[in-house]
Amino acid sequence: GLHEKVAQDFVERFEGALGKGKGRRLYAFKVMMTKKLIKFNRDFENFKTACIPWEMKIKEVESHFGSSVASYFIFLRWMYGLNLILFGFMFGLVVMPEVLMGLPYGSIPRKTVPRSDQATEMDLSVLLDFGGYCQYSVLFYGYYNSDRTIGVLKFRLPLSYLLTSVGIFGYSLLVVIRMMARNADVGGDGGDDADFTFSWKMFTSWDYLIGNPETADNKYASITTSFKESIVDEQENQKDENIHLRRFCRVSANVLILCSLGGSGYLIYYVVKRSQDFAKMDPSSLSWFEKNEVEFVMSLLGLVCPPLFESIAELEDYHPRIALKWQLGRIFALFLGNLYTFLFALFDEVNGKLEEELSIKNSSEWALSQYYANYSAFYNTTVVPPPNVSPADVIRGPCWETAVGQEFVKLTVSDVEVTFLTILIGDFVRAFIVRFLNYCWCWDLEAGFPSYGEFDISGNVLGLVFNQGMIWMGAFYAPGLIGINVLRLLTSMYFQCWAVMACNVPHERVFKASKSNNFYMGLLLLVLFLSILPVIYTIMTMPPSFDCGPFSGQQKMYDVVMETINQDLPAFMGTIFSYASNPGLIMPAVSSATFIYNNDINSFLMIKVLHILCFQFAFFNSSMFSCPGLPSSHLFRQPCKYAISFYF
Question: Can the keyword Transferase be found in this entry's annotation (predicted)?
Fold first, then answer.
C-alpha cells in the first residue's frame, strides 16, 4: 500500500524522464528552461547590483577596512543622491526658466557687470572670489528678474523661486525621516547571530560561487576583518575594569574637551571682532591673511580640534563604536559653534549693507525725480522718456543677498580645497614617506612616528553633515550652490576611495558599525532644522534688495505669496489660507502624514518631540507669521494652545 503509493508519486513526478518520445523531450525542455530561468535571475540580480553607483568600490573598502569605514561611503553616496534630486528641482524650476524665458545677460543692470568692474571681470583672481562675471550670473540670487511673469508661458519666477527654496527643505525632511524609519526597521548591532558567532563565521562565511581571484582576495579580507570585529566585541563584553579610575578618567577627559570648546569659541569671537574692525579700513591696506582671517581660523580649528579630541578620548577607553559617537557629538558642538558664529558675523555685515542700500536707493530716486522734473520743465511736456543710460552705468545697491551667497560659495569651495589638501599632505605624502624612507631611517616608521594614517570617520562624517547644512542655507542666496556641491560629492567619492585604499591602514581596533545609521541621520536632521532658521528669518523679516533678485520691489520676500492669493484666488481663499497657515494645524497634519508615510511608531514619537520644539519656536516668533492683507483670527494668534491640545 504505502510503497505502491510512493512509487506511483515518483513515476508521476518523473514520468517525462522515465518515458520515451515526446514525454522525455518535454521534460528535458522544462529542466532546461528552469535552469535558464535560474541563471537569468542570478544574472539580473548581479546586474541590479552593478547598477548601484559605486557598490563594488564600497564593498572593496568594506572588505579591507570594515563596515565602520564603509558606512561613511554609503552615507556619502546617499548624500550625493539627495543633492542630485535637489539640483534637479532648483535647476528645472528656477535656473532653466530664467535662462530660457528671462531677459538675456547685459539687458538690465542686475544682469550686467558695472562699468568700473568690466576691466577685471574675467581676471582669475576675481573669478576665484566669485566676483566679476560670476557675481552677475545665474549662480547667484541677484541675477533673477522680479517681473511677476516671464516668457510666453507667463511663468511666475518669483513665486517659483520662493516655493522651490522652501520645498527643498520639505523634501529633505521627508527623505531624512524616511531613511531613519527604514534604518530603525533594520536595527541590530551588525552581528549575524547573537549566539555561536565565531562558529557561524568559521563554517558559513565563504561564498562557494566565487570564481574570480580578485573577488576571492576581497572575500578573504572581509572574513578576516569580520573576525577582528567580533573579537573586539567579545573583549569588550568580558573586560574587567576599575570603575572608579574609569570614571575619573572620563570626567577629566570631558573637562579638557569643554575647555577646548570654550577656547575655540573665544578665539572665533575674537577673530570676528577683528574682522569687523578690518571691514571699516581700506581693503588695499590689508594683507591676505587679514582679509581671510575668519575662514582661515575656522578651517584651522576644523583641522586641529578633531585629532585633539580623539587623543583626549583615549582616557575614556570606550568601545570603539561608543567612542565614535562621543567624538561625533564633540565635533558636532565645535562645528555648530563655528557655523553660527559665521552666521552672526554675516548678518552684522548685512545690516551695514542695508543702510548703504537705503542711502543709494534714496539718492537714486531723488536723481530720477530731478531728471523728470527738469525734462518736463525744459520741454514743457508731461510725456517724459526714461533716461538713456547704459545698464553698466546705472548706480546700484550692494545686493546683500548675492553677498551672502558669495560667502557661502567661498566657504564651500575653501572646505573642498582644505579637505583635498589634507588628504594629499596628511595621508598621501605621509604614506609615501613611510613606504620609501622606512628602509633608511633611524627607527621603524611604520610602527612608530609617523606611521600610516587611519581613516578619520568622525571628522569626515561631520564635515559632510555641516557642508550639507551650508548647502541648505546657501541655496536660497546662490541657486547654483547645489550644483557645485554635486560636483564636490562626486569628486570626493572617487578621491577618498582612492586615498583610503592607497594611503590608509585599518584601525587598530576594528569594530562593526551598526546597521542602523540613525546616528548620522539624527545629526543630519538636527542640522536641517538649524539650517531652516536663518532662511525663514530672511524670508519673513529681512527687506529684499530694491534693485536685484526676484523679490525686489516687495516689502518682505513672502509678499509674493500674499500677492498671488489676493490677485489670483477668490477672496474666501485668503480666509482659508489664514486658518491653514496656523502652526497648530500644520504641525499635527505633518505628524499624521509622516506617520502614514513611514508606518513606523518610533518615527512618529520622534517627530512628536521635534514638533514640540517647533511649537516653542512658533510661539516665540508668532509675530513673524502675521500675514498682511489677510483676516486675522484668534486661532492664528495662538499657535501653541491648539498644538499642545493635539498631543495632550
Answer: no
